[in-house]
Structure formats: structure tokens, C-alpha cells
From TrEMBL:
Keyword tRNA-binding included in the entry's annotation: no
Family of this protein: Belongs to the cycloisomerase 2 family.
TM segment ranges: 20-39
GO BP term, pick one: glucose metabolic process
Name listed for the protein in its UniProt record: 6-phosphogluconolactonase
Transmembrane recorded as keyword: yes
A GO cellular component annotation in the UniProt record: cytosol
Length: 468
């Protein structure tokens, strides 16, 4: 005899035990419960539609007790090397045997086997995801594939210096220098590692280079330069390598360019702003920030990825400042760190809307030229240009707040400029605008403390650094 459950006309007393039994089954077999029409009919009587919401909440709570944990939540891998990721599955707090389904967000950067072995392919940032066999939980690891090349803009010599990092010791070896425009200051590479650009402050141009994928050597592109307005400084590229944005300080504008497949730039538009030299991009790549000439607030612009156009999204609360400033973004995308004098200002950032709000302000009382944040998100560094000091602060990733930890000093008179950290988080490099040498440091992975490792010849006084 065929039973028709389509009308679900049962008395409530008769349903008490079946409901409880079926609910227990559903908690431990979520997919089967949702797909079974009989179960749906019993649990979701038409006379009480709200029970669907009630059951959905219980199912969500059941799934929330399932967690996947990875042995690396972030990592940097030298191009050509591999990394073994390991996953563990916990259900209701107890470790449970499970297989995992592994995926890469971009196979051109790295691929992952179904045993969790990540093999690097090309430069870039990706997410590797491990999903439990029952589909209830997953976890991601943020992976950066790097080549180990440091490029320095040598503004006093009109060069770009090229150095290579020893992957074991972190020590940089000088390769050579390449001719750039007049006064290269800002410097950057596209995330795929194929092209390099400098903002030539006195030449009003952007120098365009091709990067040799085997050696890291540079070749001037054709044309060698593209117009960049007056006094171009800092520049950024989008994560998909499609657009470049430049702070044109002399014309008080942000200039937008398309990055063509051959690495040349096509000018798109200019956005008049009272922009200073500093420009930054959000971790999700959807917004750029710039600082006003007074350096007392930050404005965010949303990037339209259909055409590269910009539209204003938000303005931060004002903060005290009397000098240059620099912005770092936390790897979780939730916080901005604005290094100014006399304080570090911490702002929360809405990565959907581009709006900012005040979190905290920490006094440091020294001059400042730049900031850098560790790829783990646990340490923030301030570069004090006049005092010759680099300070380390620990970061609470849950609140974004910072507390002073340590510093390295004794670099007064070297005009410290900018700092880069290698994607593995083991080494840091600081540009100096006097002499030919930049400064090298190892990083304590527990405390963030910097230990000097001497200097490396960069080919001339450095203004800025970029790591590929």
C-alpha cells in the first residue's frame, strides 16, 4: 500500500516520538535529513511554517560543532618548493577520523594533491582549502609563492637594484642595477611576478620593466616610460594583475592604469584628490586608501573591476599627526595601522563597504617613515627615520590592538625609509637613503624581535623596497 505524505495531516500527540527520533537522526546526518521528503513533511507541518527556521537553526548548530584545523594557517613557499599541509577534524570537541577534499584557489600559483601536498607553480597569493569528507567543515591556509628577489628603487642614482635572498640564511646577494627614470621612489611588481614598475618622482613617469622568470633580471619594456603626472610616488597593483594605481603628489591625483598582457600600461583616468605620496590596497583587493596632505585622515575608494574606475567609499575619523605617515593592513583584512607622529592609529575596516572606524591610538613619540606587518598578523613594525630605530609591537588579531614589545636601534644618520618582510616571515629588510647598503634582520617567530644580520649592497642609496 502506498502512503501519501503530501498533506501531512497527523495529530500532534502521534508525532512526538517520531519528531524527536528524526531530529536526532538529522543532527548526525544533515544532508540525508534535508533530502528526505518524509522527514521534511514530518518536521515541517504546513500549519507551522516557523518550524523550518527552528530546525535550520538546530542543523546549523550541529554543523558548528564540526571544525577542521590545519598545521599551517598561512605560509610562504619559495617558487619550485612544496609544503605538506595536514588537517585534523574535530566533532563536538573530539578528534574524529576523516579524509579531506583539497582545493587551490588558483592552480597557476600552486596546486594541491588529495594528501595536502602543496606544490608551488608561479608567484602570487592563494587559498588552499581542506574540506571534511562529510562536508560539514573546512579550513583555509593563505599561501604566498615567492621567488626570493628584492628590488630597490635607488632614487639618487636613477637605478633599480636587484638582490636575491638565500632561502636558508635570509642573506641578500647583490645582482646588478638597471637604469630607471629620474628619481625612482615608488616601486612595485605585479602579483604574477612578470612586470616591475617605478614611480619616477622628478621625471614625471613610470618606468616599465619585464622580469626574467628564471633569474629575476630586468629588461626595459617598450615603451620604457609612461606619463605619470607631476611627482609620482607610491604605486600599487591589484591582485589579478589587471590594474595599477599611482599617487601623483604634484598634481594631487590618483592615476589609474590598465596593465596590458605584455606589461605595458594604458592610462585610464585621473581622480583629483588632495593625495600625499602614500597609497595602499585592501587585503581583498577591492579598495585603495590614500592619505591627505595633512595626514590626519584616510579616504577609501572602491575599485570597479569591470573598467578599473574608482568611487569614494569612506573617510576615516581624524587622528593626530605632525609629519609623514604610512599605512599597513592586517592579513585578516579587518584592521588598518596608520603610523604617524606622535601615535599609531588603529582603524577597523569594513571590507564590504570600505568604511573605517576608530579602534585605538598608541603613543610612540618618534618620527616615522613607514610601517610593516608580519605575514602572521602577530607583529607590527614602525621605522623611525630620524632616530634610526625600528620598533616592534605585538598585535591582538581579535581586537586589532597593539602593545610595545622591543626595538633595534643604532641606525641614526642612515635615513631609514621602508621595510619589507619575506613571505615566510623569517627575515626583514630596511632601506636606507645613505650609502649603498640596506639592513637585514632575522625575526623571532614567537616574539617578533629583530636580530641584525648585517648589511647588503643594494647598488646605491635606497628609497623603497619590494619583495617578489
Amino acid at each position: 500500500m502506498k502512503t501519501d505524505f503530501s498533506k501531512c495531516s497527523y495529530h500532534s500527540k502521534d508525532l512526538v516520538f517520531p519528531k524527536i527520533l528524526t531530529l536526532l537522526i538529522c543532527i548526525f546526518s544533515f544532508n540525508a535529513c534535508l533530502l528526505n521528503p518524509i522527514v521534511q513533511c514530518i518536521l515541517f507541518p504546513e500549519k507551522d511554517p516557523s518550524s523550518k527556521s527552528w530546525f535550520g537553526l538546530l542543523a546549523l548548530l550541529a554543523s558548528s560543532n564540526s571544525v577542521v584545523e590545519l598545521n599551517h594557517t598561512w605560509a610562504g613557499i619559495r617558487k619550485g618548493n612544496s609544503l605538506q599541509l595536514e588537517a585534523q577534524y574535530y566533532s563536538d570537541g573530539a578528534r574524529t577520523d576523516s579524509t579531506f577534499y583539497w582545493t587551490s584557489s588558483n592552480d597557476s600559483v600552486a596546486i594541491v594533491s588529495q594528501t595536502g601536498l602543496v606544490q608551488s607553480v608561479g608567484n602570487g597569493k592563494i587559498l588552499i582549502t581542506a574540506t571534511s569528507a562529510d562536508g560539514r567543515a573546512s579550513a583555509t591556509s593563505a599561501i604566498t609563492v615567492y621567488s626570493g628577489y628584492v628590488y630597490a628603487s635607488l632614487d639618487l642614482n636613477d637605478f633599480v637594484g636587484h638582490l636575491t635572498m638565500d632561502n636558508s640564511t635570509g642573506v641578500l646577494a647583490f645582482s646588478t642595477t638597471y637604469n630607471a627614470g629620474d628619481g625612482p621612489t615608488g616601486i612595485g611588481v605585479d602579483p604574477s611576478g612578470k612586470f616591475l614598475f617605478t614611480g619616477d618622482f622628478y621625471g614625471g613617469s613610470i618606468s616599465q620593466f619585464l622580469i626574467n622568470q628564471t633569474t629575476g633580471g630586468l629588461t626595459s619594456n617598450t615603451p620604457v616610460f609612461v606619463a605619470a603626472g607631476l611627482n609620482p610616488r607610491n604605486l600599487i597593483t591589484t591582485p589579478d594583475s589587471r590594474f595599477l594605481y599611482l599617487a601623483s603628489e604634484g598634481t594631487s591625483a590618483i592615476r589609474a592604469y590598465a596593465i596590458n598582457p605584455n606589461g605595458t600600461l594604458t592610462f585610464l583616468n585621473s581622480y583629483p584628490t588632495m593625495v600625499r605620496g602614500e597609497i595602499q590596497i585592501s587585503r581583498n583587493g577591492n579598495f585603495i586608501f590614500y592619505m591627505t596632505p595633512s595626514v590626519t585622515e584616510i579616504t577609501s575608494y572602491r575599485i570597479n573591476y569591470s573598467d578599473g574606475s574608482l568611487s569614494q567609499a569612506g573617510v576615516s575619523p581624524t587622528f593626530p599627526n605632525n609629519g609623514p605617515g604610512h599605512v599597513s593592513t592586517h592579513p585578516n583584512g579587518k584592521y588598518l595601522y596608520v603610523g604617524t607622529f606622535p601615535d599609531v592609529t588603529i582603524l577597523s575596516f569594513d571590507s564590504n563597504l570600505g568604511q573605517m572606524s576608530f579602534v585605538d591610538s598608541v603613543f610612540h613619540g618618534m618620527s616615522i617613515n613607514s610601517t610593516a606587518i608580519h605575514p602572521s598578523g602577530r607583529f607590527l613594525y614602525l621605522v623611525h627615520i630620524n632616530e634610526g630605530v625600528v620598533s616592534c609591537y605585538t598585535v591582538d588579531p581579535n581586537t586589532g590592538k597593539i602593545s610595545y614589545s622591543s626595538n633595534v636601534s643604532g641606525y641614526s644618520g642612515n635615513s631609514l625609509r621602508f621595510m619589507v618582510i619575506d613571505p615566510s616571515g623569517r627575515f626583514a629588510y630596511v632601506a636606507a637613503n645613505t650609502g649603498n647598503n640596506l639592513f637585514q634582520f632575522s625575526i623571532n617567530q614567537t616574539t617578533g624581535e629583530l636580530t641584525p644580520m648585517g648589511t647588503a649592497n643594494a647598488g646605491g642609496p635606497q628609497w623603497n623596497l619590494t619583495f617578489l
